[in-house]
From TrEMBL, chains A, B, C, D, E, F:
GO terms for molecular function: peroxiredoxin activity. The lineage of its organism: Bacteria, Bacillati, Cyanobacteriota, Cyanophyceae, Nostocales. It holds the Pfam family CMD. This is Carboxymuconolactone decarboxylase-like domain-containing protein. It comes from Mastigocoleus testarum BC008. Residues 42-127 form the Carboxymuconolactone decarboxylase-like domain. InterPro entries: 4CMD/NDH-1_regulator, AhpD-like, CMD-like. It comes from the Bacteria.
Length: 140, 140, 140, 140, 140, 140
């Protein structure tokens, strides 16, 4: 292999690590976000995979359950990212958080970001739980 | 006791549960916030104790380490609450989170709230860790 | 009564005071928010009643019209709480604010939070006023 | 003319300059926002025209392409003004920015406001581009 | 006078109305903001006077006390405008609001924007009240 | 070289491209941010270099002046990132924007994020310009 080939391989490796992590955490919903970027800004999807999942979510030092707790807290507090919040409520359940834990995080955000932020996030959780029940997803 | 006395006692009980939880989590820094409200708005301090700690942080369903992870994530993302972030970085250490976990949460927020929010929070963590080292606080 | 019974009564009293205040201010819309939390996070609804309405809105020192002016201003500025803004535009009318006052508050927010925030809030007001007219609510 | 007439004329002149600038930049979409305010808060529409376009967008010192780049960046970062973002993605194209430039600005916002803000803005851009293609708007 | 002269006069009239309103509401603190813009962006100061005070604060339909209640609520909720919040806490007192009303507005914001926003605003109020006491400002 | 060596080289190459871009745009101020992260979270600094500058700022499709215009707009609007805003006001001047253009972007943000956000950013610009004058930085 030429050096150029090795460079491509390294990028691919970071991409592949990210892609596996994305599928592990977000499942189909993550893949669907990446697909929806394909004919407008595929590189934004690539950065989500490479930086978001290949770099950050692949780090040690904080387990995946705590990572998802942190993400749900942040997205609830920011209040302007409901589609991403739904993806990560499912992600939290996928990596083993309980529904009760998710509800507790959202309630706690009333203290830090106010009741409207908590309310709007809770209704997203309600939708996400309802869809899982309807689709017989049994993990949580 | 008259009913009125019992009512006061009930409120006091909720207050006392909150006060104990506040001291367990935030330690002196929490007490100092409440004191600083005394001659301007003592009721705001009372609500922090009663609602924040007596109601929410006293709930089961999410352990204190995960609660503090959630709070650090939210305050990092909101970006306009640096004094409170510092209190909760110390709180996270007080309840058994590691410095590494706190750093990981803040790094992860770069994905959801951008690098400036993560940077500004990291410098708060740097200050908090430095003060603990200087004061020989050994828990973490 | 045992002390335990009195404690329960005190909590109930705070809840009841909040519930009455909620109905006075928000009417059916408030009740409907609480109901929608019932099978996901009833305690979040309880905190809205107890803390939001039993504690804060029941305070003296600021009349209800000014309280609603403040809430409309805040929700317009935050810009991520449109369902709650609609509830409080109706609440402001319920406690005696005029439509003109609500419109003025929203216009003024263009100075502090920008024109998009003011515009999006104004369209919520337009909806709320339209619904009141359609339902022949005559208070304002 | 009396002084009163001249005053009215001056205001009208500022209004007219703004109106022309609004049509040049935002086209029909701008006009439609103003119209939708007519029976609720026409003065808010007048301020958008007079202050927003008659004062600010009519200034020299920054060309219209850079002004629209700035607006798209801000609305992407704020994340709570999607209808206005769509108007200004079209505006940017109307004044000569390329689709690629708009996509680049939105990708860059992932650094400063996080990936959810960038993602949600990108989907607004996707919609806007799709509508232009469907309507055979050929400028960009 | 030529038409050009009349145009200038009309602008001056709007400016003068705004300047008087600014002094009435904000007093020296408002004047000092305008002065501090003089050698960097005097037009931004002019827009604050003309649009902020000449247009909006001069409107009828909402009295000045309610206007200041709305502004304090918004600046507390936004949480990133502490110098402006201080100016408007003084402004509220200047137009006849009581200290108690200001404290109540800030406490209420804990419901809508969270406790950190309310806390940080309360400490600004504490500073503002302290300075007024020290300077023997007797209005409130 | 083993494949492992090539992988490291590829990462290094992305890092080096980012580092050169960071120095070109932000100069010493950028380097100083990275250094300040060294003993707390060096990986956050590495991601700024690799993702922020190696990936995003190295992209074609938007020239560096427009990239800095976008960043100043976003940081002004967000209002909670004043240290980063100062770095990028200097960066904008470094890549050839004029002081007038920076002032215009900040004034324009009054429309989208309100006057307090514009005011606070303008005072950051005033500081940055003053320091450049004092240090005889002649580029702008």
């Amino acid at each position: 292999m030429t050096t150029q080939d090795h460079l491509k391989k390294a990028e691919k490796s970071r991409y592949e690590r990210g892609w596996e992590k994305l599928l592990e955490i977000d499942g189909d919903a993550g893949e669907s976000v990446i697909k929806s970027l394909k004919n407008i800004a595929p590189d934004l999807g690539r950065y989500i995979i490479e930086f978001g999942f290949g770099d950050v979510y692949s780090r040690s030092g904080l387990d995946l359950q705590k990572r998802e707790i942190a993400t749900i807290a942040a997205l609830t507090a920011l209040g302007n990212a409901q589609p991403q919040l739904k993806v990560h409520i499912n992600a939290a359940l996928n990596v083993g958080c309980s529904r009760e834990e998710i509800i507790e995080v959202i309630i706690q955000m009333a203290i830090y970001a106010g009741f409207p932020a908590a309310l709007n996030a809770m209704f997203v959780a309600k939708d996400a739980f309802f869809e899982r029940d309807r689709n017989n997803i049994t993990s949580a």
